[in-house]
Amino acid sequence: MKTLYIIILNYGTPKDTIECLESIENNNHKNYKVIIIEIQDINNSRAKINEQINSYKGNKYFMISLSENNGFAYANNRGIEYAIRQKDCEYLLILNNDTVIKKNTIQILINFYEKNSKKFKIGFTSCKILYYDFPDTIQTVGGKINSRTAHSKLIGQNKKDSKKYYNKIIKTDYVIGAAMFLHKSLISEIGLMPEEYFLYVEDIDWCIVAMRKGFSNYVCTESILYHKEGVSIGNNQKKKEINLPMLKLKYQNTIKLYKKYYKFKVPILYMAFIKKMIGRLARREYSEAKIIINVILNQK
What we know:
Blueprint: E1 3-10, H1 14-25, E2 32-39, H2 45-53, E3 61-66, H3 72-84, E4 89-95, E5 99-101, H4 105-116, E6 122-131, E7 138-140, E8 143-145, E9 152-154, E10 169-172, E11 179-183, H5 185-190, H6 202-212, E12 216-227, H7 244-261, H8 266-282, H9 286-297
Parallel strand pairs: 1-2, 1-4, 2-3, 6-12
Antiparallel strand pairs: 4-11, 5-12, 6-7, 8-9, 10-12
Helix pairs in contact: 1-2, 7-9, 8-9
């Protein structure tokens, strides 16, 4: 039997994880199992989530506990390794715990793969991702990497959802880690998610690996997901607060990605960072400006 294994990380936000699980429980594709990666049991998460999953019928939910936080990719990879060892595993879905899916979100992704996998080498597929608090506004329908500068940019970000994005199949360079659907066979072709970043850009790296192996990545905009964005890493979007350590890590990892795949374009990236730093100074956002210059000056 072809079973979808959904992998969800929980890092101290059980309320969001439970809301995500509720949306999965109510979806109309029933042949799935969920692996919850519980990291460090912050806020009594393990007990709260276990209480929730014990209320569901069937043996669909499993929990793997990690005593240390070794990053987004590391935790997801432990779930992937568990899933692909199971005889019934056919598909995988990496899903952020701060997301909510619609009833048909999963079925549309599976239908797309089964309809097109013999015609195309499909790597990763994702949904049209809308902001949870602004459900008429797009966060992303995939991402593009500029061939000249290697700069990555989300498609459709902050645009109002419109007919332009209805029921479309978009071929894209990368999909974000909030929702990455794949056939299990892709793992044997490209390996597990890169673990050297801790957080940020590992999704882009993984998609680059897939493209360099001849696979194409897609977004099915008929499949919809709502993303709270930032809950799982400490950003508070409503208050416009910035988690500065995470921001620093994002800058550092972007440089690391460039050095890995686009080393001759690193000077272009530095120029872009300097331009951004000047803009932050002009807006008196001194903390972020300081982070940018420190990241550039402390590169090896």
